[in-house]
Specification:
alpha+beta; four-stranded mixed β-sheet; two-stranded antiparallel ribbon; 6 strands
Length: about 120
C-alpha cells in the first residue's frame, strides 16, 4: 500500500445545502434526498477522475474550502457534505480527525468549489 499523501486538491460541484440533503420519510426515518445522493455520486466520480492512485491524506486534517463568490445560502451548510464525501472517497480516514476548517466565498467559477485536504502541522 502506498504512503499517505500530505495534501490533495480537488475541484467539485458545489454540494447542496444541508437544508436540502435529507428527507424524513414515514416508516424509514431520515434518508438522503435524491439531489444530495446524486451530488455525492457525481462528486465521488470527480475525486477519482482528478486523482488516480492513492488518495488518502494522513490525519489529523486541515480542510480549506473555496466556494463561489455568489453562493446563495449559508456557507457553513455546505461544509459537512464535503467532509462526508472526503471520507467516502478515501481522502480522509474519518472526518472526526479534522482539526481545522477554513471556508471562504472566493471561488470565481460559478457552481464549483475548490477543496484542499492537508495533514495538519
Amino acid at each position: 500500500m502506498s504512503a499517505p499523501l500530505s495534501t490533495i486538491s480537488l475541484v467539485l460541484d458545489v454540494p447542496p445545502s444541508l437544508n436540502n440533503a435529507f428527507l424524513n420519510v414515514a416508516g424509514r426515518g431520515r434518508i438522503l434526498s435524491p439531489r444530495y445522493r446524486a451530488w455525492q455520486a457525481d462528486a465521488h466520480r470527480s475525486v477519482i477522475a482528478q486523482h488516480v492512485g492513492p488518495r488518502l491524506v494522513a490525519p489529523p486534517y486541515t480542510v480549506t474550502l473555496s466556494m463561489p463568490v455568489k453562493l446563495r445560502g449559508d456557507l457553513d451548510n455546505r461544509i459537512k457534505g464535503v467532509l462526508d464525501l472526503m471520507k467516502k472517497a478515501g481522502v480522509m480516514t474519518d472526518d472526526a480527525d479534522v482539526v481545522e476548517i477554513v471556508a471562504r466565498k472566493n471561488c470565481a467559477t460559478p457552481r464549483k468549489c475548490a477543496v484542499q485536504v492537508s495533514t495538519a502541522r
